[in-house]
Amino acid sequence: MGMLRMVWARVKGQAAQGCEGEAFDEEVREHIARLEERYAAKGMSAEEAARIARLQFGNVTVLKERQRAQRGILSPTEWWRDVRFGMRMLAKRPISSAAVVLALALGIGLNSAVFTFVNALLLRPPQGVSGTNKLVEVWLHNPKAGGVEGYLPFNYPDYAYFRDHTKSLEGLMAFDGDGEDAIWNHAGTGEILHVQFVSGNLFSLLGLNAVAGRTLSADDDRIDDPRQVVVLSYPFWKQKLGGNTGVIGKTLMLDGKAFTVAGVAPASFTGLMVGTDPDFWAPLTAMVRFRPDDQNRFTDRDSSWLIVAGKMPHAGGRKSVQAEMQVLAKQVYLEHGSKGDFRDALVYPLTMVPGPLRVYVGAFTGGLLLVFALVLLIACTNAASLLLARATGRAREMATRSALGAGRGRLVRQMLVESLLLAGFAGATGAGIAWVTSRMLMALKPANIPVTLSIPMDWRVVLFTAAISVATGVVFGLAPALRASAVRGALVLKDESPSGSLKKSRLRSTLVVAQMAVCVVLLAGAALCVRSLMNANAINAGFDTHHIALATLDPGALGYSSAKINDFYARLLKRVEHLPGVNSASYAQFLPLGTSHSVTFVGRQVGKDPNAVMADEFRVEPGLFHTIGIPLRGRDLTQTEADADKPDAVIINETVAQKMWPGEDPIGKPLALRGERAMSQVVGVVKNGKYRTLGEAPAPAVFHGQLPPARTLVVRSAGDSRTLLNEIRLEVPIVDPLMAATDVQTIEQYMALPLFPARTVGWLLGVSGILAVLMTAIGLFGVIAYMVSQRTHEIGVRMALGARQSDVMKMVMGQGLRLTAIGLGIGFVAAFGASRLLSPLLYGIGANDPATMTAVAMGLGVIALTACYLPARKAMSVDPSVALRYE
User: What is the pLDDT of residues 81-124, one digit of tens each?
Assistant: First the structure.
């Protein structure tokens, strides 16, 4: 408390600072006047008395500085004086100042861009919701499982039990994290919309009121009497329905069924999970209207699909909620569980990213921040080198200030003000770079990932940018400020020239070594990722990745019978095959390397088979292998076999053949699929492919018919498949006006998803590596050029005494290359360790690939040679007669 009172007293004292300053000046004048009177009384002349009085009184400027220092806190006037002086000093060297600002702005901007994603994913609460600090989410957790796989959403029976028995929460709500695509049938056409299913109490617990009409209620969500009502999102209402309040109470045809519009949600509310942005919300129990084949979802305890959240009566009560959820989990286990399947319940603050996934999102964004922090570190070393050079050039100024009474703290403050000005300009520029970069990073997202993300530059991003700017200014400005404030005034004022030798420039040399080491780490990572991306593009996925168009369809969502579904697909296929430029077309449930997967066990006998292997399962139509370019030995499926109720005929890949019948021809052999009571016959063998990731080892796969209602249309074109996309969209409503296709894309766009990790990391590290190389080259050039300028006199003496130009070249370049060698050595040690973190993202290349590391070393060596050669060339052309007169 004593310290606080002292600080507060000093702050209050600033209000009277002007008066105190005037009183101090008046007191000084009075003291000097009395001394003058005393000496005049001794018979001195007025001029002599005034001179002697000023000498005896002492340096007035020094006394003023001491008086200011005693006040502790500077006045705004003094700060403004320092700022104006700093601006003049920066303006005297506009080119070098602009270069420092640009380098720092790139580092600050890249870090702020990543922070916009940290903010959007981990820090920003759900928008439009009141009392976000009272909201929590609840997850089931298997204590025996590790990683994210141990966390599970709720099934509906467990959610209902927790909801009905909780006492520590005002209420428990739930929503479907995945959502669902629905076809909006209007004006004789179909349009794809996104629906999210939510519990009837969700809007009331979140404190959300409808813009028009009403929100959902608990009565809308009763299992015994579910209502077919929806709440529209504000963007959909405005953009698609013109903001017409007359739609309230009207019906929308969704998946061929009538739903009543209950109301419109607030404009700012987009849901409780990042990237969803539904067009409308429907009660949980309305899901059976959209998924008529999934009637057991509300009774099946093995169906985990609900994200559960609750609202606490007051903030800070999460511990009591956690304790109660554990008790409820135990009760559910005792009533319905079986031995070994106990799941406890964990409580997290409700954020836009589910609690169990936050650690992974944090690790990824933290890694990006670390990479860009290294870029910023290189920029800081460049800025520090520049300020060190300026500090040496301003030695006389600092000595004069010191002689006039300025203390070391005063000199440090002035230098720090200049560095903070540079950092401030860089921060303002970096904010613009962050805005652009964050949009560019969003552009890296594959179009077939249905995630939208709002990344505003809100107050958190602005505060982060300001904080990192100030920290940067202090980091790169402190060392030069301390060096400048430690000036030896007597030597400087006597015109003793400083030496530019390497021994007296250890700090700048250390900065260059650090730059080179960091540059090696970034450039090695970038080179590995670029080579990996090249390898990934060249990996044989097992199917053709050119001249193919795709579209997803689901007539089953309209409630069609199996006969009507088959008729729709047959008529659509016939029309598509007759489009100009189409070579062939077929259907599949889904394609390899996508987000959907299905597995089954295959063996040589029905039932338990100790030799059975797990295989990826694909359901396909005849002609799919030819259309997508998968080599087939044997024969294809017939349409009768594809439409059969059970898979009488199957096609396997080479891995299954080797595991089941090594050294034998598998065609004609019987094969059992899990769940089937009869054996199937192998009719064909396809080459191995990539089914889940591009980097996977050869994996078993089996192909058969029995396609579900939702299918992917695969079309091979003779030319550019992009020309077919719009044609396919137009053909679908011609066959059935109520249908609409989703995910209409080329195979190249489809492949953007499996290439996304390598492409993203390669792009980010590539940009970082290029910036690091440029900044390091500039830093090395600056250090050598500065050394040459400081040793011009010495070089002249050497040349006057007979030194050759080659000797000067060796001397200058030797110093630069020694710094380079030390930096490369340290950098490669760090790079060999850091590159192992990239191993999961590398394709066809080791984390410490010798060829890549050698190429990085040679590249940086050439850049270092160039950066050293230019100043060395200037040094060897020095005229000795001019150099001997050089100051």
Answer: 777 877 887 788 787 788 888 888 988 998 999 899 888 888 88
368-393 average pLDDT score: 79
Q: Check if the beta carbon of residue 375 is closer than 8 Å to that of residue 772.
A: yes
Residue 382: band (very low, low, confident or very high) from pLDDT cuts 50, 70, 90: confident
The pLDDT assigned to 1 comes to 43
Name the token pair of 407.
């203390």
Q: How far apart are the first and last CA of the chain?
A: 55
DSSP string, 135-177: EEEEEEE-TTS-GGGGEE-B-HHHHHHHHHH-SSSSEEEEEES
Phi and psi torsions of 263, nearest 5°: 180, -170
Amino acid identity at 256:
G
Binned at pLDDT 50, 70 and 90, residue 849 comes out as confident
Q: Which of 115-119, 405-409, 548-552, 669-673 has the lowest mean pLDDT?
A: 405-409
| Closest residue by Cα to residue 727 from 563, 579, 840, 508 | 579
**Whether the Cβ atoms of residue 272 and residue 309 lie closer than 8 Å to each other:** yes
**C-beta neighbour count of 719 within 10 angstroms:** 11
List the structure tokens of 221: 């969500």
Instruction: Please name every residue paired with 609 in a beta bridge, in sequence order, or none if there are none.
Output: none
Cβ burial 438-466 (10 Å sphere, 16+ → b, else e): beebeeebbebeeeebebebeebbeebbb
Do residues 211 and 244 lie in contact, with contact meaning Cβ atoms separated by under 8 Å? no
Between CA 708 and CA 324 the distance in angstroms is: 42
Say whether 182 sits in a helix, a strand or coil.
strand
The tokens of 21 are what? Answer: 């300053």
Q: Tokens representing 645?
A: 């109720």
Contact 481, 415 (CB under 8 A): yes
Of 103, 108, 99, the closest CA to residue 379 belongs to 103
CA atoms 167, 173, 177, 180: torsion sign: positive
Centre a 10 Å sphere on the Cβ of residue 833 and count the other Cβ atoms it contains: 12
Report the alpha-carbon distance of residue 677 to residue 534 in Å, rounded: 46
Predicted confidence (pLDDT) at residue 819 exceeds the cutoff of 90:
no
- Helix, strand, coil shares of the chain as percentages rounded to 5? 55, 15, 30
β-bridge mates for residue 251, sequence order? 260
DSSP string, 465-507: HHHHHHHHHHHHHHHHHHHHHT--HHHHHTT-PPP--GGGGHH
In sequence order, the 6+-apart residues with CB closer than 8 A to the CB of 886 are 792, 793, 796
Q: Which pair of tokens denotes residue 661?
A: 């019948």
Amino acid at 55: L
At residue 58, what is the residue type?
Answer: G
Q: What was the pLDDT predicted at 10?
A: 47
Other beta carbons within 10 angstroms of residue 883's beta carbon come to 19
Cβ–Cβ under 8 Å, residues 72 and 407: no
Question: Which tokens belong to 10?
Answer: 């000093």
User: What residues does 649 pair with on adjacent strands?
Assistant: 681
Bigger pLDDT: 827 or 9? 827
Tens of pLDDT, residue by residue over 503-515, are 446 777 787 888 8
Q: List residues bridging with 599 in a β-sheet.
A: 616
753-790 burial: b if 16+ Cβ within 10 Å, else e: bbbebbbbbbbbbbbbbebbbbbbbbbbbbbbbbbbbb
- Tell me how many degrees the CA angle 56-60-62 measures, rounded to the nearest 5: 110
Give the C-alpha separation, 760 to 533, whole Å.
Answer: 10
Q: Which of 139, 143, 150, 156 is nearest to 301 (CA)?
A: 156
Decide if 730 contacts 575 (C-beta within 8 A). no
Give the tokens for residue 197.
Answer: 């299913």
Give the gyration radius of the chain's Cα atoms: 37
Taking the CB of residue 632, how many other CB atoms lie within 10 A of it?
16
Q: Is the pLDDT of residue 833 over 60?
A: yes
Using CA atoms in the order 658, 662, 663, 668, what is the torsion angle rounded to 10 degrees? -80
